[in-house]
Amino acid sequence: MGTLMACKNQESVDDGGRSLIRSPSGACDGDLVDQATSSTPVFVYVLAFFSALGGFLFGYDTGVVSGAMLLIKKEMNLNALWQELLVSSTVAAAALSALTGGFLNGWLGRRICILVASAIFTAGGLLLSFAPDKGVLLVGRIIVGLGIGIASMTVPVYIAEVSPTHLRGQLVTINSLFITGGQFIASVVDGAFSYLSHDGWRYMMGLSVVPAVLQFFGFLFLPESPRWLLQKGFSQEASRVLSRIRGRSDVDEEFETIKASIDEEKDSGGDGPVILRILNHGPTRRALIVGCGLQMFQQLSGINTVMYYSATILQMAGVRDDKQAIWLAAATSATNFVFTFVGVWLVERVGRRKLTLGSLLGTGLSLSLLAVGFLLSAQHSPSITLHPVDLYNSSCSHYGSCESCMLDPSCGFCYRENTTEVYDSSCVPVDEASSDHAAWGRCSNQTDLSPFWAYNYCPTSYSWIILMGLILYLAFFAPGMGTMPWTVNSEIYPLWARSTGNACSAGVNWIFNVLVSLTFLHVAQFLTYYGAFFLYTALVVLGMFFIWACLPETKGLQLEDIEQLFNGPTCFCGDMSPNDDRHVQYAPVNNYNSCHSDNDGSDVD
Ligand SMILES: O[C@H]1[C@H](O)[C@@H](O)[C@H](O)[C@@H](O)[C@H]1O
């Protein structure tokens, strides 16, 4: 490997942008830096937009189901198992297809995979909106999941491969913006169609066809990634596409750098299944550990539990009307979306490492605030004052407070309240067909005069702490932990391992997504809600150690150079990040001629 060299465009110091363009000889090319940073052709934004529609569909299809489910379960009389199946089948299918997507990506290319994903999204959306019964709904949800898996691993790779170095982080992070944007739009659509109690869900699910068709037709006219083309030996096409994307004809330097790295890899005689080659090749194996670790900790921070649980949190805060709860849940996903902009803005300014660490720190603090809120609510949980005769002698009749009653999934809390206190409270079995009311007694038939029914939560006056924790959590999670795992994974693998590396890490993301959401209620049952949130806090602290110790800074490096960051030990314990400002000197290139190598000259080789 040649010495890692860096150039810094002085003009981009102010906004924090950094350019490192390496020619095959290792020399910095001032003109190239100039062209790359000063005139980014619009075309690259068009490419990023059409690819990020895949992220939008990922967000929309995972987000829309919660609101749609409220209507579907009534119309199709779904029990809890079917509801669970319709939600988790999509995520499980996404895990499977993300894992196999790596093979498809390397074989067919990024563009074909994006086309396939948008065709799958279209077919799934149509099937869902015309589904005659729950069986077809399940098939539709699985199909959509297959599309999500492929899109989630292909889109960041494609955007990273077409982006100029100085914009790569920002453009890939736009995909995350589209994910949270999709979740937000889904919640607004859920709110709007919730008034249409008959068939409203068909529109909610069916609307995803619009961006899917748009992406499909867009990609019919958009080019393949030049890096993939070159890897497959289509040199002329690769050079033509690269010039088109860069908006200029002199792309030789970049072209040669990519080619040199492909030739180098060919010379080293790689053979056999890519995953085995990754595992046998130190730097790539270490990159894979870091990439999968990031994705695992993203999900272990409990984002999807918090998002999913937001409606209940809002109910605890006293929002009882279903419609109002739906709209307030839209406010939650809006917070997630708005704070993702902060990530897009910061990624090229502060870099991936600091952004992720700062985000995790805030996420951990907010999780402990959430936990404290739940702890105080539990300690001041209303007691049960009425004990109606329970003919079936269910477990519900044994509880003394709302806290223990609501932690039992078969019971709910029935109560009246005035401005200061809860009174006339009882713990009764929930109706098996619908958790909206009790199986029998005062809360079994909801009228305006009947008492309130709380399933899965307790009324509390500490809900404001929980609400604050929720908002702070999203504000800290969204810019860093929500975005960086996808961005960093799109850039840390060498070309030959990029599809497989991203497939594995996206697969890890989806697997932990299923694990965390499926286990949440059980964990809450064993540890109580505050215990569950303290557990997530502990996992976030572990994640911070991992990221502090093992995540190098990739900002400003050309994709072909990033592999060198993993030449040392997997974890460099924070103070040895090879791309720290302390280790790489960026030379002012006002005159675009001066260029320094690392300060000790020894480099990361
Ligand atoms: O990066 C995304 C994003 O933060 C979403 O809000 C979340 O639902 C996904 O699981 C995650 O992968």
UniProtKB/TrEMBL annotation:
A matching Pfam family: Sugar_tr
Domain Major facilitator superfamily (MFS) profile: 47-555
Predominant location category: membrane
One GO molecular-function entry: myo-inositol:proton symporter activity
Localisation per UniProt entry: Cell membrane
CDD domains referenced in this protein's UniProt entry, alphabetically: MFS_HMIT_like
Record flagged with keyword Transmembrane: yes
This protein's GO CC annotations: apical plasma membrane
Reactions mediated catalytically: myo-inositol(out) + H(+)(out) = myo-inositol(in) + H(+)(in)
Membrane topology: Multi-pass membrane protein
Domain of life according to the entry: Eukaryota
UniProtKB keywords: Cell membrane, Glycoprotein, Membrane, Phosphoprotein, Transmembrane, Transmembrane helix, Transport
Membrane-spanning residues: 42-60, 80-100, 112-132, 138-159, 171-189, 201-222, 325-347, 359-378, 462-482, 503-523, 529-551
Keyword tRNA processing on entry: no
Function: H(+)-myo-inositol cotransporter. Can also transport related stereoisomers.
Family, per entry: Belongs to the major facilitator superfamily. Sugar transporter (TC 2.A.1.1) family.
Entry-linked PANTHER family: PROTON MYO-INOSITOL COTRANSPORTER
Protein name, entry field: Proton myo-inositol cotransporter
Organism: Gouania willdenowi
